[in-house]
Amino acid sequence: MATIKTENMEHIRSEQLYAEACEIIPCGVSSSMRKNVKPLLFFERAEGPYYFDVDGNRYIDYTLAWGPLIAGSNHPFINKAVAEQLQRSYTLGAQHPLEVTLAKKLTGILPGVEQVAFSNTGSEAVQSAIRIARTYTGRNKIVKFEGHYHGWLNNVLVSYKPQPAQLGTPVASCGGQPAPEFEDTLVLPWNNLAAVKELLAARGHEIACVITEPVLANSGCCMPEEGYLQGIIDCCREHGVVSVFDEVITGFRLALGGAREYFGLRPDLSVYAKAIAGGFTMAALGGRKAVFDVIREGKTIHAGTYNGASVNLAAALATITVLSGDGCFTRLHAYGHALREHLQLAARKAGLLLVTAGTGSVFSMHFGLREEPRNYADTLAADAALFAKFRALMLHEGIHLLPDGRWYIGITHTDAELAFTRQAIDNTFAGLAG
Ligand code: PLP
């Protein structure tokens, strides 16, 4: 087998493990989203902002495990909280005082959130939001947007990355998604308020909820246009539809209070996961008490063996304490801004078209575009092959990036990592130009 070898970096052990894994794990990975990451590296440990692979290479990591590691790895305060909790209990399948502590904390931090329900993953919490919205409204249809990701289940993995010819109609995103399982899912292009208004005016009486990522982080980090998100909330209210913001990425990232705080919005329900517990398995659904009342009234259920597992509650509380530190989000935003400026400067110098989109500590880079994409369809014009080349060169400079052009910044990225990354960007653009 050929080994990936450059002057200073080898991935021999990763290649061996990948070959072994492919024999006994489908595609050799534990989530299909990871199968497009090339080369497929195996990591043995992580420390602060660094990942260490099994061949002894060190990388500054900007994947943050696809978002959760906002406080980096091996954070002493989070470790201590988790270690102490481990001595007392892992999970109980029963109530724990930390549930109340965390719920109080969340209702204090997240504007307009009156109650929270704990879950484990974003996918599960999204399903709970949809079920609650359906019970509350007595309607079945849900509205989602092209390019948005709300987990891997059949009713929402619809028009996630459609081909250009598939735009405009709800389409399955993988095999094993029978059409009847998403016939209640209506799909619209994003950042087009007129389309939402038109659909809700015509079919609002059938629609339980509209679900949206507040920043389209899963497809190019497109930003919402002025008034768009508030427009969705208002339109939903007018038609008795539940507004659901999927804050799995934006929560505890745009600001401590997520998109609710950052954009000053109060949707009916919001879904949190990823950064909420700094890398431990935790999700939460937050929103208006009147909507959650369908659970109290016994009209529906919200369930899960591991919901409210004590060790994850401890991790979430510790992560939120760390993120509550003075100037934390200002620093995250400044770092993201500095990186984007440097990328754009380096691209200009190299004579390459590049735009970046997003905000603060989550942004995407798009080669070949002149303007920030407004929605998923706009991202299709970007030069993905050039980004793949960029990513491969950056990896050999010791920078670990996601395969889709998205960058995540965490609090352990400091001036030293910024300086190193700027140099790596310069070297990489020199390589691309040559
Ligand atoms: N919602 C959004 C916006 C996400 O980005 C993701 C995962 O990336 C999910 C939901 C699903 O979360 P999980 O992977 O924890 O099930």
Automatic annotation (TrEMBL):
Keywords in alphabetical order: Aminotransferase, Pyridoxal phosphate, Transferase
Cofactor: pyridoxal 5'-phosphate
Highest rank taxon of the organism: Bacteria
Pfam family membership, one: Aminotran_3
InterPro entries in alphabetical order: Aminotrans_3 (IPR005814), Aminotrans_3_PPA_site (IPR049704), PyrdxlP-dep_Trfase (IPR015424), PyrdxlP-dep_Trfase_major (IPR015421), PyrdxlP-dep_Trfase_small (IPR015422)
GO MF assignments: transaminase activity
SUPFAM superfamilies: PLP-dependent transferases (SSF53383)
Signal peptide interval: none
Membership in a protein family: Belongs to the class-III pyridoxal-phosphate-dependent aminotransferase family.
Protein name, UniProt field: Aspartate aminotransferase family protein
Organism phylogeny: Bacteria, Pseudomonadati, Bacteroidota, Chitinophagia, Chitinophagales
